[in-house]
Batch of 2 targets.
Target 1
Amino acid sequence: MCLIVVAWRTHPDYPLVVAANRDEFYARPSAAIARWPDAPHVIGGRDLEAGGTWLGITDSGRFAAVTNVREPGMAKGVLTRGALARNFLTSELAASDYAQKLDNQQYSGFNLLLADGDELVYCSNRDGAPRTLPPGVYGLSNHLLDSPWPKLLTARRRHAAALPQLPDTSALFELLADSEIVADHELPSTGVSLEWERLLSAIFVRSAAYGTRASTVAWLRCDGTVSVQEKTFGPNGQALQSSLISTGV
């Protein structure tokens, strides 16, 4: 997952609203959002190579999403980062307790957002101790929380502007479909080539081998209803399918 924007307790009817793009190589086997056969209360995608997930939410409103920290050349961790989100979704631990128990040294650089209905927690093995976040709109890509990357600043602004339109999610998906490349002088420097910095500067990434494979909008209503809507894509941004899963609690 390379872009996550979360509105936490900023809307009177929707305490949690998530818009996210997962960027990955198209060759990596993955499953689109669905209820997990071994944990049917969880709705999320699955990485079929390492067994984790990049984003999921449960019937009770537990939410988790993970991004990697872009740090080329660093040694890889022992465990898959997708397990961080998967294990929280299938546990009953409070978000802060789960975050405190993580063995950060087992993983490559990661950022993790966790919500349990009572709190939203951000933790990273590149950004100090876990912290509970107050109400607000937060953005996460492949650096630290709310890093001022151009695409992250744009995504946060447009996410906040789209909230009054809920339950209409069209503005959120328009945000996630923005493929504008940032001007060179605004690009971050993350250790990859200029060609890759340009490609990855877009909210929606498209190329033949790597790009945005899923755009997901998930929300929790104050009445307990959980909904997840996802659009999936193939090489060069080719649209594949659209799914919607909702449940009342």
Target 2
Amino acid sequence: MSELERILYVEDEDDIREVAKLALEAVGGFVVKLCANGERALAEAEAFKPDLILLDVMMPGMDGPTTLQRLRASPGLETTPVIFMTAKVQPSEVAHFKSLGALDVIPKPFDPMRLADQIRAIAGGA
């Protein structure tokens, strides 16, 4: 994988989106593009060319797994690493998300001070 710099973060909760953006930019040094839903992610992901996609699981309209499936059909995003963020972290749920193509799952609520390191650790093992 190339250097991890650009993260597309898809999350429907405004406050969670803002905390994560601040954590990833200020603490992690990443360039972050926020999308409030799967439809917006599909509209903006190709042009943004993310190095990694951070994806909420439970969103109104198009959920995370459906968004991932649709993003995989976009040119240039077929192999972009994806990490799900969710409160659904039972072993069977994590296994299911990985079977969909996610590298791993970051549990919510997350620690803003550790988020960038968690992402680097997961992506570094890809």
